[in-house]
Amino acid sequence: MFPLDELWSPIRLTLALASITTLLLLIIGTPIAWWLARSKARWKEAVAAVVALPLVLPPTVLGFYLLLALGPNGPWSLVGRFVGLRSLAFTFEALVIGSVIYSMPFVVQPIRNAFEAFGERPLEAAATLRASPWDAFWSVAVPLARPGFMTGAVLGFAHTVGEFGVVLMIGGNIPGQTKVLSIAIYDYVESLQWAQAHILAFGMLVFSFAVILSMMVLEKRIARPRA
Amino acid sequence: MTSSERGISARYEGVLGTFKLDAQFEVPMRGVTALFGPSGCGKTTILRCIAGLNRLPGRFVVGGDCWQDHATGIFREPYQRPVGYVFQEASLFAHLSVRRNLL
C-alpha cells in the first residue's frame, strides 16, 4: 500500500486552514455584519457588494489579484520588508488570507440576517434597562443571533474546505504547506493514482453530506421554541 | 435657578419621518403625571424622546440636570438615563428564561 502519511498531510492542512479561517472570519465578520445590519449609511450596500463579490467572481480572478498583491512586487512587499517576509505567495499565510476573503460572504451574510431579524426593539429595551451598547451587544444581540453565528461558522468552514481555485493560484502545491485536500485530489488524478484519489474524494463526499445534514438538523432544533 | 429648572422641563420640536412634533411642557418632580391625547398626537414619541430612544431637536432638563440640549449638543444616551420604560408591545428577551427576563 501507499504511505498513509501522504494522505493525512493534506487532510490535516485542510482542517487547520478551515479552522483558522473560520475563527478569523467570526472575529472580522461580526463587526462588518453588525455595521451592515445597523448602519443607515447610503453607501453600505456598496460595502455589502464588495463582501459578496467572491460569490460571483471566478476564484482564479481573486487568486490572480492576491498573487500580485502578496508577491515580491506587490503592496505586501512594502510591509513584508519589516517583517522579514518579502513575499507571502505560496505560503500557508497566503492561503489563510485568500480563504478569509473567499469565504467572507458565507459568514457575514447569515450573521447580518440574524442581526436584522430581531430588529431594534430588544436593543432599545436593553438600553432603557441601562445596558451600555457594548453590554447590550454581548448579552442581547449575540445570543439572539446565535443561529446566524452557527450557520455562518459551518458554511465558512465547509466552503474553505471545498475551495480550489484560489488555493491553486496563490498556494502552489507544496506538500505539508499549501497542498490542501482539493489540490491533492487533483494531483492524484493527474498522476493516475486512482486509489488515493478515491479515498480522499469519497471522504470529502461523506464529510460534505455530514456537514449539510448536521446544519439542517441544528437549524430545526434552534427554530423550535425553547423548552 | 428658575422654578422650572427644579422640575422637569421639556421642549421638543422636530420631524420624525412624516410626523412633526412640537411640544413644550413642565412637570413637577413628584407625584404621577399622565400624558393623554388622541391616537397619533405624539405621546409615544415624547416618551421615546425622554428615554433617549429618539433624538429630536429640543431641550430636556430634570431637576437642574440637563439630559439634552440641542443648542450645546448635549445628549445623554438612553443607557445613561435613569428611567424605567415599559414598551407598548411585550419586549421580552427571547433568548432568556422568564426568571432571567425579570432579574
Structure commentary:
- Chain A is mainly alpha-helical and about 230 residues long.
- Chain A has one domain (about 5-225): Orthogonal Bundle (MetI-like fold), CATH 1.10.3720.
- Chain A contains eleven helices and no strands.
- Chain A has helices at about 5-40, 45-50, 60-70, 75-85, 90-115, 120-130, 135-145, 145-160, 165-170, 180-190, 195-225.
- Chain B has a five-stranded antiparallel beta sheet with strand order 2-1-3-4-5.
- In chain B, strand 1 (about 10-15) and strand 2 form a beta hairpin.
- Chain B is globular.
- Chain B starts with a helix and ends with a helix.
- The interface between A and B is medium-sized, with 20 and 19 residues.
Secondary-structure map:
The complex is a heterodimer of chains A (227) and B (103).
Chain A: H1 4-38, H2 44-52, H3 59-70, H4 75-83, H5 92-117, H6 121-128, H7 133-144, H8 146-161, H9 165-171, H10 181-190, H11 194-223
Chain B: H1 3-6, E1 8-16, E2 19-27, H2 43-51, E3 58-62, E4 65-69, E5 74-75, H3 98-102
Antiparallel strand pairs in B: 1-2, 1-3, 3-4, 4-5
Distinctive features:
heterodimer; A: 227 residues; mainly alpha; B: Rossmann fold; globular
Q: Strand content of the residues of chain B, in percent?
A: 25-35%
Give the strand content of chain A: under 5%
Number of helices of chain B: 3
Largest sheet of chain A: none
Number of domains of chain A: 1
| CATH fold naming of chain A | MetI-like fold
